[in-house]
Amino acid sequence: MKIVALLLVFLCYFFQNFVSAQLKIGFYNSSCPNAEFIVKSIVQKRFKNNPSITGALLRLHFHDCGVRGCDASILIDSDSSKNQISEKDSAPNLTVRGYELIDEIKEKLESICPSIVSCSDIVTLATRDAVALAGGPKYTIPTGRRDGLVSNSSVDLPGPTQPVSEILKFFRTIGLNKFDMVTLLGAHTVGVAHCSFFQSRVSDFRGTGRPDPTMDPELVKKLFRLCNTSKPATTLNDVPRTFLDQNTSFIVDNQYYNQILKKKGILKIDQELALDKLSAPIVARFAKNGNAFRKSFAKSMVKMGNINVLVGDDGEIRKNCRVFNNPN
Fold first, then answer.
1. Angstrom distance (rounded) from CA 78 to CA 82
2. How far apart are CA 160 and CA 234, in angstroms?
3. Do 16 and 175 meet the contact criterion of CB atoms below 8 Å apart?
4. Domain boundaries, the chain
5. What is the pTM of this model?
6. Which one in 185, 186, 187, 306 has a CA-CA gap of 20 to 30 Å to 160?
7. Where does substrate bind (predicted)?
8. Which among 40, 46, 61, 63 is annotated as catalytic?
9. CATH 1.10.420.10 fits 164-302, yes or no
């Protein structure tokens, strides 16, 4: 069984590298010369008014690439008339946001270069630009992705309460390794989490009636007040939330790793990264060396953006990111 598993991982790695080799830097230089400039300018405008967009795009990008590959399947709206529930409305994606920004970029590009720039490339480029605006690394990324033709509610993404070993298994199935896992979870440096994702850690950890002993007591008090003194929520937007990085909440830096070393991880997986022997040495390295994190983050983001991409004649170039060109 181990041999079969290793063979599958190798074939996945080989296929991804073969397909991603068909992507290239400046893919739209001739067909839509201003494409990347347009993406960047619209992201800049949104970031200026709402710097939390960086965290939103990072999550949207990962949740897209982690399911069927980077094919913009997460952008498709459900069709109630046909009883079709899309990926967007699956449980793990209910708090994903940033869709309106992608719509704005797509509408602008369609007015200038109709049916040229894919929604999957827009997500990838917008995320890259948002990372740079938030003080993160600037990196070049190849383009030429095409949009997928399937989006359904069957989504298998790792949850924040799973152990490091289980989350690592997931990363390996999509062609990423241990270093990519620890690096990409560093995107929590600009993320937020609703109380429902961590409330048990501050009140009734694993049915003990006590908080999680691996969380800093002062942070426990702060989060307990946040989650228990708010008005009852009527919509998801009303659910209290907090920054995953309590220090530099809008900056892509290595402070996330320093905080989890101090028992200030909000999500269980955040804290486990600093405690598990599989990930702890990498966490310690990134906490000590911000440049090492920046370099690794850029590398892993490019690598993630190549997961199971569609190129050539596969898929389509959607005219509207929310619907397939031919819904039937």
1. 9
2. 24
3. yes
4. 12-156, 164-302
5. 0.91
6. 306
7. 158
8. 63
9. yes
